[in-house]
């Protein structure tokens, strides 16, 4: 293969057009699996081949993993690296590391995750002497997040909120912000806000970066928020070389501030933009593509688009309704096991779900069968107490102003600096006008303390100085972390604590963390602050340790951008998908449909959608039943199994699933699913004749609540002139032939 031509020979005409339009604004709008990401990669390669310096190219992806893959592919295509590829947060963190000093802040700042931010907000609530039961820190955090999404400063928030609760929230914002600055920390929103402010308010900085970066590319543009958009607009401003790709039907982050209108904004801002539409799907079988397209067609606020494929129909998309979630899990695990036995790669099999808690039954079932799996992003490694402790220690060593981390480690492991001691120390700190961490590093400060506390504080102070010396020795992150575990006596303390709690492998997570640190030292230089930034910015997808072939379990949100041969989506139940939150918080129902659409379009060859009549969650069994979304997939190339009406002897369906799950033509024999047709009442319409045991025959007047998340209700006028409103699912109605 001629490497000079390689990039273009793998593209279709439209993709090539997007790649060859090297300069100026370009918008690629296209459905799932049409090669948007591939187009971005090839465009980068083409830019480099045309002489653009790799470091002048900034490409933004949604996860670090995607960024890594893109970087590797570009390197394979042109044999050169050095392109800035990463997430928005990652780019902003490195930007701030360099530019923060312009506004007098240190580049060695801490990055606070949601847990840290919440801890900080709790302190704010205390400082403001608010009642945490009345004014919950989590609500305040959310209010602050909303202002931040709108790029409003605390002062602007205060101006806009002069009354009641809003005024309290604005005061909390101001204090939260001041505390962040004092701790030299940024929360996730801050990374982008601070970077944008620096670019907008400081011409030197703006010119520096505009000169540095000539071409900007953004994948998954539908999920960017206005601040992120402003950021890439500003960076690419002089040449207007901004290329974005996205799919409105995959917009699933509007609840986190992503702006679904950003395609319109782009077209307004760049009226001369070259618009490229890609219509050929290279990923999925025709049956999968058909079902996914029919589903998304139910969204009203969307521009219809064509998606074609040259792939064969493939096996039918399966919709299976189980009696309960353990049957569902068993069936999915059986199917995965059978597929692997028949030669499928475990990595090519994925199970998706709406919320993390749904993974447990599937995990148990896979475990029971000895099928290896990994939970992508789930209960994270980084959320484990010992890992958080270790990170807090490292963070504080890197940024001595970091109060949130300091409070976590001060008495961990316990060293006699409990609450009472801390109060005393805080009083001294306030007297001297220094922060608590600064005070603790000052051995002359403890004279007035009671003997025991004084000794404890002195020992702590000594420890801090020892650790400082270790850190300055600069032997890499891993060596320092190991030293820290010894000097602080954390290892010994944790071993006792964990074995008391019955842990078989108390050092498992710590060991894994050290391995991570070691890898970092080996590949990226071993600077503690950079290492910490890197691990704080790992997305769910990145947080997963890849240790050999395994079935992938992840949320629908995490599945974005990925593809697998076989996809099983569990929990497509009422009140799960669409999620009850969507209703409670008045979220967009259409977004829930897009979410399912994203999951479905990940599948290449096999797609199975599962629901259950009963589901145990949070220790309770609830009646859920199949989601109304499943009614929207149509019939073409879709096979349905199981009973969609309330619990009508479900065993045969489970049996059928099991019997057929090993079969190539998995349950495609229609004679085997006689009563596994659609819901017997699916055909019920206004005017249908129905029969009810108590009320007799009647006529349906109206069918209501057809919308997602609502139970369908029917109003029936029975022949005795009785009018009844019934919940269809529990109505016991039979549809009479007319
Ligand atoms: P999504 O919307 O899910 O992010 P996408 O539009 O980014 O999808 P890609 O992931 O780039 O699509 O491509 C989907 C699949 O199709 C990939 O496996 C890719 O390698 C393949 N593909 C894309 N374009 C072509 C092409 N011109 N010829 C052959 N295969 C292609
Ligand atoms: Mg993509």
Structure description:
The protein is an alpha/beta fold and 738 residues long. It folds into five domains: 6-97 and 193-278, P-loop containing nucleotide triphosphate hydrolases (Rossmann fold, 3-Layer(aba) Sandwich); 110-183, Arc Repressor Mutant, subunit A (Orthogonal Bundle), CATH 1.10.10; 299-377 and 547-641, P-loop containing nucleotide triphosphate hydrolases (Rossmann fold), CATH 3.40.50.300; 383-541, PCRA, domain 4 (Orthogonal Bundle); 672-735, Beta Barrel (Thrombin, subunit H), CATH 2.40.10.170. It contains 28 helices and 21 strands. Strands 9, 10, 11, 12, 13, 14, 15 and 16 form an eight-stranded mixed sheet that branches. The protein has a six-stranded parallel sheet with strand order 3-2-6-7-1-8, with helices on both faces. It has a five-stranded antiparallel sheet with strand order 20-19-18-17-21, with no helix packed on it. Strand 14 (603-617) and strand 15 form a beta hairpin. Helix 3 packs across helix 4 (64-78). The chain is globular. Bound molecules: adenosine-5'-triphosphate and magnesium ion. Magnesium ion binds at residues 36-37, 219, 561. The site of magnesium ion has 4 residues, from helix 3.
């Amino acid at each position: 293969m001629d490497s000079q031509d390689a990039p273009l020979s793998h593209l279709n005409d439209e993709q090539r057009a997007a790649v060859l339009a090297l300069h100026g604004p370009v918008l690629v709008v296209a459905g799932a699996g049409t090669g948007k990401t591939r187009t971005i990669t090839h465009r980068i390669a083409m830019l480099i081949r045309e002489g653009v310096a790799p470091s002048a190219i900034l490409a933004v992806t949604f996860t670090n993993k995607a960024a890594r893959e893109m970087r590797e592919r570009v390197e394979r295509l042109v044999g050169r690296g050095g392109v800035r590829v990463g997430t928005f947060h990652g780019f902003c963190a490195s930007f701030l590391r360099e530019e923060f000093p312009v506004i007098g802040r240190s580049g060695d700042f801490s990055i606070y995750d949601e847990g840290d931010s919440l801890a900080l907000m709790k302190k704010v609530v205390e400082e403001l002497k608010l009642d945490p039961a009345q004014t919950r820190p989590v609500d305040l955090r959310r209010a602050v997040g909303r202002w931040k999404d709108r790029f409003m400063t605390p002062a602007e928030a205060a101006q806009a909120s002069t009354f009641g609760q809003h005024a309290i929230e604005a005061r909390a914002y101001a204090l939260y912000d001041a505390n962040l600055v004092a701790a030299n920390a940024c929360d996730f929103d801050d990374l982008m806000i601070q970077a944008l402010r620096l670019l907008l308010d400081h011409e030197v900085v703006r010119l520096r970066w505009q000169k540095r970066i000539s071409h900007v590319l953004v994948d998954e543009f539908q999920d960017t928020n206005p601040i992120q958009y402003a950021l890439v607009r500003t960076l690419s401003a002089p040449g207007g070389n901004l290329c974005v790709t996205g799919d409105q039907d995959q917009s699933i982050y509007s609840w986190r501030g992503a702006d679904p209108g950003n395609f319109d904004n782009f077209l307004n801002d760049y009226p001369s933009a070259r618009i490229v539409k890609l219509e050929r799907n290279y990923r999925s079988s025709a049956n999968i593509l058909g079902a996914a397209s029919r589903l998304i067609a139910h969204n009203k606020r969307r521009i219809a688009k064509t998606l074609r494929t040259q792939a064969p129909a493939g096996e039918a998309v399966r919709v299976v309704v189980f009696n309960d979630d353990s049957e569902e899990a068993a069936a999915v695990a059986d199917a995965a096991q059978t597929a692997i036995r028949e030669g499928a790669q475990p990595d090519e099999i994925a199970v998706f779900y709406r919320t993390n808690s749904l993974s447990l039954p599937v995990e148990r079932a896979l475990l029971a069968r000895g099928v290896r799996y990994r939970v992508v992003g789930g209960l994270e490694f980084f959320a484990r107490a010992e890992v958080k402790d270790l990170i807090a220690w490292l963070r504080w060593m890197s940024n001595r102003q970091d109060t949130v981390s300091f409070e976590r480690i001060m008495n961990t492991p316990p060293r006699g600096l409990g609450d009472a001691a801390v109060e005393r120390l805080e009083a001294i700190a306030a007297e001297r006008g220094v922060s608590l961490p600064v005070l603790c590093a000052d051995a002359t400060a403890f004279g007035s303390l009671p003997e025991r506390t004084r000794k404890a504080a002195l020992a702590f102070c000594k420890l801090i100085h020892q650790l400082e010396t270790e850190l300055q020795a600069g032997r890499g992150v891993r060596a320092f972390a190991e030293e820290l575990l010894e000097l602080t006596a954390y290892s010994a303390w944790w071993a006792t604590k964990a074995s008391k709690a019955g842990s078989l492998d108390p050092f498992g997570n710590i060991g894994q963390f050290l391995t991570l640190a070691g890898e970092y030292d080996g590949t990226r230089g071993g600077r503690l602050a950079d290492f910490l930034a890197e691990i704080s910015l790992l997305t769910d997808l990145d947080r997963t340790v890849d240790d050999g072939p395994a079935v992938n379990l992840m949320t629908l949100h995490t599945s974005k951008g990925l593809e697998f041969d076989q996809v099983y989506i569990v929990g497509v139940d009422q009140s799960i998908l669409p999620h009850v939150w969507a209703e409670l918080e008045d979220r967009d129902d259409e977004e829930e449909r897009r979410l399912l659409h994203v999951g479905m379009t990940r599948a290449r060859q096999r797609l199975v959608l599962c629901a259950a009549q009963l589901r145990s969650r949070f220790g309770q069994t609830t009646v859920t039943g199949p989601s109304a979304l499943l009614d929207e997939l149509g019939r073409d190339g879709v096979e349905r199994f199981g009973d969609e009406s309330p619990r009508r002897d479900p065993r045969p369906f489970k049996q059928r699933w099991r019997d057929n799950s090993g079969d190539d033509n998995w349950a495609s024999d229609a004679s085997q699913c006689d009563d596994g047709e659609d819901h017997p009442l699916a055909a019920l319409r206004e005017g249908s004749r129905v029969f009810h045991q108590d009320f007799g025959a009647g006529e349906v007047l109206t069918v209501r609540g057809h919308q997602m998340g609502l139970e369908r209700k029917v109003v029936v006028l029975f022949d005795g002139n009785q009018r009844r409103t019934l919940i269809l699912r529990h109505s016991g109605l039979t549809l009479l032939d007319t």
